[in-house]
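Hey,
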Amino acid sequence: MRQVILFLCIFSFSWGLKSQTKVEATWESIQERGYPQWFSDAKLGIFIHWGLYSVPSWSGKEQYAEWFYRGLEVGDTARIEFQKKVFGKDFRYEDYTTLFKAELFNPDEWADLFKRSEAGYVLLVTKHHDGYCLWNSKFAPQWNSVVSGPKRDIVGELTQAVRKEGLRMGFYYSLAEWTNPLHRWYKDPDDSIARYVNEYMIPQFKELVTNYKPSVIFTDGEWSNSAKDWHAAELISWYYNTVGEEAIVNDRWGEGCPYGFRTPEYSAGIRVTDRPWAECRGVGRSFGLNRNEPLENYVTTDELIQHFAKLVACGGGLTLNVGPAADGQIPLLQQERLIELGNWIRLNREAIYGSRPYKKFTEEKDVEIQRIDSIINFDWVRNSPDKLISEDHFEAEWSGFVQPEYSEEYTFEAKADDGVRVWIDGTLLVDQWGSFDSENSADGNVQERKNIQKIGNKIKLKAGKKYAIKINYFENIQNASISLYWESKSQKKEVIPSKALFISDLSSTHGLQATCRSKRSYLCYTVNNNALYAILLEWMDNSLKLNIEKPSSDTKITLLGRKGELPWKYENNQLIVDLSSIKLFEIPCRSAWVFKIENGEKK
């Protein structure tokens, strides 16, 4: 077949795996080794967060349930009261071992589900930050799933079942622990971690790898220390030399680590192709099962498939998490999402597996929503004000009037992640419009976010008078929040209440007019086997217009899952595909539709 590279631009990646030789414990040697191609080709992995935290399986609606113990440590009232109410006032986190029975855990059923999802690999949390191990670690002899809880080698059983289905098995491993007596993360000084690393973490890591030889290592809990503190180069090189060419590690090895596949978390994806990457997120907004989550926190099938397509188009992939219950049952809604994603991938797999980005990743359009917000006090965490708005890189604006109760000087203060400006009566009182990279607040708000800005200024106001107010806000990446406070001699500091806000100076309706804006992808591109694939995220009734270079005259265009070619023409620098002949019953799937563009010459 004559190549269609005449109008395709295939990215040339330089991070392919070099021929296997001994990897030295230096970043130069590790980087020279590169990355195995299978990971970039796989596109989809399944994350599994399952442990003692799966017994309470409860946190705030936007929090990570697997951080339950940390909440108890720092005095999170909601978690503490929930534990007292459900399990008793004298119940301790350690007592969850008596309730973690895994009586419905069937590793073969899990592996079959993951196979049906069309995933290429599985990542099991072998040990989270609470230190509880899902294998019989001699370094945690009384704190693992073989000697307590279900009394089963979860790691070993699932590894065998997953590999039997032809999938690669990987492990999440927390470098730090909250409760280890050699170093208690967040309690003991960060620079006192050496004994824990040398006497506990390194030998336990090597025990895990030696026993099960995982294809992927996903480390976490690294951010309080440097890569040098964790002996990262030493461990990565040892792991590579032990497991071989298929082994790959992520990028969470501490400050100063220049290596590993990137792991954006609950994001809109990234557009960096210097090394492999896979976004990680749950079907809901927690990794561990959170029974306190409302249904709207869960992605719909359409949202999941469209998000996955965008990640692949940008050169990455998705590590999609499931959070089983303590009994070992993966919630049915989560199972359904995996199966429906797998059904879509099977139909369109040639556009996904082994694909590379086109010279443009997506086509985007402006999206805007308007509404009335009663107050300005939002913590969207890793989300956005509306599902139509992108999780990253969005803007919001509020306008209306504010009416004080007292005639005196008021101080206005805004707390925002990332940028905020506030005008009162045309006067700019708060101006913090820099660009900040968000911290990884994986604890679901237990940690203080270091990049939240607190700026304030004063203005004299008269009681009962309405003053124009305008707030501008922008979100960069990951965490998103904004709160607006006021304070005066007679007015205690508080979030400005709804009763003091009005949508206009003549209206009695409380609140502010809100407008949120972002870009939204409606079309994605991938390249595979000399064909270009256009993945349409919003169906167009009559024609599909692609802003690409002119193809050769013998190019044929088809809709995957439907027989027959589609007519096309090229006008005004656009490839226009005629969709009018497609009948409703011929549309092969829902959520996203893949058009294949290839040279018409036969082999």
